[in-house]
């Protein structure tokens, strides 16, 4: 019995020891927590942790107020971005006329090579000069009388069915003298290729008329002039037949066309320097003239008025 009671008492003592140890450990833990919680810096760490935002998937938008700056913002490279240019529709100001809304006939340059005939730019021709009595200045080209008698007749070969009509030619004599003349006439045989039959007034600028014949060189010119081109319909012209002549052109004509049948129709040229529409096609309508350099001038509003020189207000470019 005694042994049993002793064993029971020992078990109760062990339980008390375990409880005491547990209580002691718990007490020590509580005291340690209190001590650590009172140390400086712990509140700062706790505050910092509270101020740090937690990453979320929400999108944050910013609303700006006030007037935005007009200066260019820098790009990633540090250089200012250029301001966008206004579109053509955003520009204001006076309206610009279209290419077709002009009071003068339109001018265009053809890209098609145009034959200059026998007389070509930048070529020098050799021949002789003779003299004739020019009277009032009219001749085979039928330009009519002229107060300017610095004119000449071209030999038949170089006259080339009136292609030379209206050409301005620089003539040089062997003695160093020179003059500029306009071709208004044809010199028939025995005038040879290269020969010019000058008006007496023009010949006298180079040599004494008594000499009668001198060696020369000559070349085509594109002179300075204030004169503009005129158009004249031949006497007898009508809507059924017409002859058309260009007067006062700076450069020789290569062709003349009329607007007919929805397109341009080239008219044949006569030796008396008129372009003929035998069936009346295009008579009284738009006219297009082309010089030997390929420049084209379209002439609108020329009335069908026979034997009247009608100014157009335009001229070929100088070369």
């Amino acid at each position: 019995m005694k042994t049993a009671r002793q064993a029971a008492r020992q078990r109760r003592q062990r339980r008390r020891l375990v409880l005491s140890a547990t209580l002691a450990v718990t007490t020590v833990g509580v005291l340690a927590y209190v001590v650590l919680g009172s140390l400086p810096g712990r509140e700062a760490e706790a505050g910092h942790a509270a101020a740090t935002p937690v990453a979320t998937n929400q999108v944050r938008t910013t609303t700006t107020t006030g007037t935005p700056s007009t200066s260019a913002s820098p790009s990633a490279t540090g250089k200012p971005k250029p301001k966008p240019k206004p579109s053509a529709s955003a520009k204001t100001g006076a309206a610009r006329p279209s290419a077709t809304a002009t009071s003068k006939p339109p001018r265009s340059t053809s890209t098609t090579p145009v034959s200059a005939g026998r007389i070509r730019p930048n070529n020098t021709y050799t021949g002789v000069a003779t003299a004739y009595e020019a009277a009032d200045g009219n001749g085979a080209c039928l330009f009519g009388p002229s107060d300017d008698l610095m004119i000449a007749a071209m030999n038949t070969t170089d006259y080339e069915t009136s292609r030379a009509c209206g050409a301005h030619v620089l003539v040089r004599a062997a003695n160093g003298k020179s003059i500029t003349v306009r071709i208004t006439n044809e010199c028939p045989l025995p005038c040879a290729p290269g020969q010019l039959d000058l008006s007496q007034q023009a010949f006298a600028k180079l040599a004494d008329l008594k000499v009668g014949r001198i060696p020369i060189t000559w070349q085509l010119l594109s002179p300075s002039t204030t004169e503009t081109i005129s158009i004249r319909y031949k006497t007898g012209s009508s809507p059924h037949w017409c002859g058309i002549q260009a007067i006062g052109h700076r450069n020789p004509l290569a062709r003349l066309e009329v607007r007919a049948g929805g397109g341009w129709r080239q008219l044949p040229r006569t030796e008396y320097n008129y372009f003929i529409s035998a069936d009346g096609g295009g008579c009284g309508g738009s006219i297009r003239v082309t010089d030997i350099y390929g420049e084209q001038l379209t002439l609108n509003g020329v009335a069908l008025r026979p034997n009247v020189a009608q100014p157009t207000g335009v001229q070929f470019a100088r070369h």
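Residues 2-37 form the longest helix (36 residues). The helical segments are 2-37, 42-51, 156-159, 200-203.
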